[in-house]
## 1
Amino acid sequence: MVNRKMSGLLLGTFLILALPACAPVISKELISRADKGLTFKEVKEDPESYRGRFVVWGGVIISSKNVKEGTVIEILQTSMDRQYKPIHKDQSEGRFLALYDGYLDVAVYASGREVTVAGEIKGKRTLPLGEMEYTYPLIAVKEISLWPKEEKQRYYYDPYYPYPWWWYHPYWGPWW
């Protein structure tokens, strides 16, 4: 009886702690305001005609800088999963600018970091990109979420793995 109560308590505690891990990083209010039928490609073709509409986009930061109006982040757009985490980093439909009304540390919001942005389309900005002019859709950020850096796991191969020739291992060798 005690084991069942303890198991139920542990399971309940685990579920309460695990549920927020599945929640999206953007608030439900902004997700509900976002126009889910509007694609990045449509907006990129004519950003001015979508002015005032809300979107949730994700991608990889290319650059960020602090200016008088706030922090401007140049982002390479990518698709997102259910939690609005950027995925398929090698597939993109273009770039966009996210304007945050305030200060963000550009050392933290650095090149290569993954980010999810929810905000209002404010039109477009044309800036030089290499030797050409590039038209960026401009988003006024309402919420921004920086994803943690993913650490790559390292796997080590033990050259003295004992099975099936355990007697050749240097610590268990035939000299015992």
## 2
Amino acid sequence: RSLPHSRQADIIERVGWLANEVGHTIRSYFDEPRSLEELRERATAPRPGYDIHHIVEKTPAYRDGFSREKIESPDNKVLVPRYIHWEITAWYATKNKELGNISLREHLRGSNWKTRERVGRYALRKFGVLR
């Protein structure tokens, strides 16, 4: 049994924004890797399907006493595909046997900015965002 046309139109109207967002998000997932400069420049003009990502993780950096100016600096922000952003975040949070069964985020606690930035750039390369 099918829905009446009026009901179908109502559903399409209500979820149209979702279909549009999902389309952008899926397309962005297949982006080619970019240079660090391109990723930083793109962070100045966010677009559907992408998230601003902090190379040095924002919340852990705040917790370890780094300044807002350093954390929110344009040098620390890049625009990445949304699903890849989620994958990077999960990677930081996943327990790792090589690190003594703690997460990379826990392992980096107390580390200096340079170390965190090196790991952040590694993550961008590992997940195919940075060439």
